[in-house]
Amino acid sequence: MPKRNKQLNKQLRRQPKSEQPKSEQPKSEPAKPKHKIWKRIAVCDTYDDATVLKTKILCEAPNVADLEVKIKRFGDDGSQFQVKVWLAPLKKQKRGRGE
Fold it and tell me: What pLDDT digit, counting tens, does each position of 15-27 carry?
């Protein structure tokens, strides 16, 4: 075990336990998800129906760069297809000086 500084040990002993430094500081901002959260739009019986819906969503989207649409197989033996959408979170703009 490594030796600790004697002065540091004395300071830690003098402080009440509630005032001792904590390794984690409370964060004011909510935690960001580590993965994408997809939203189910529709369930289709055939892949062709799901493809038509996917192209319709992408054509109507105002900003295609911030939108992702996928078709996922699910159900009994993969008999159905679900269309899922993920919208990229908005990036905060940094304000420069004088604005």
Answer: 666 655 555 555 5
Confidence of residue 81 (pLDDT cuts 50, 70, 90): very high
Ramachandran assignment for 14, one of left (phi > 0), alpha (psi -120 to 50 degrees), beta (any other): alpha
In a domain, 20, yes or no: no
pTM (two decimals): 0.57
**Number of domains observed in the structure of the chain:** 1
Phi-psi domain of 54 (left: phi exceeds 0; alpha: psi -120 through 50; beta: other) = alpha
Residue 32, token pair as written in the block: 């960001």
**Residue 85, domain member (yes or no):** yes
In the chain, the N- to C-terminal Cα span, in Å, equals: 54
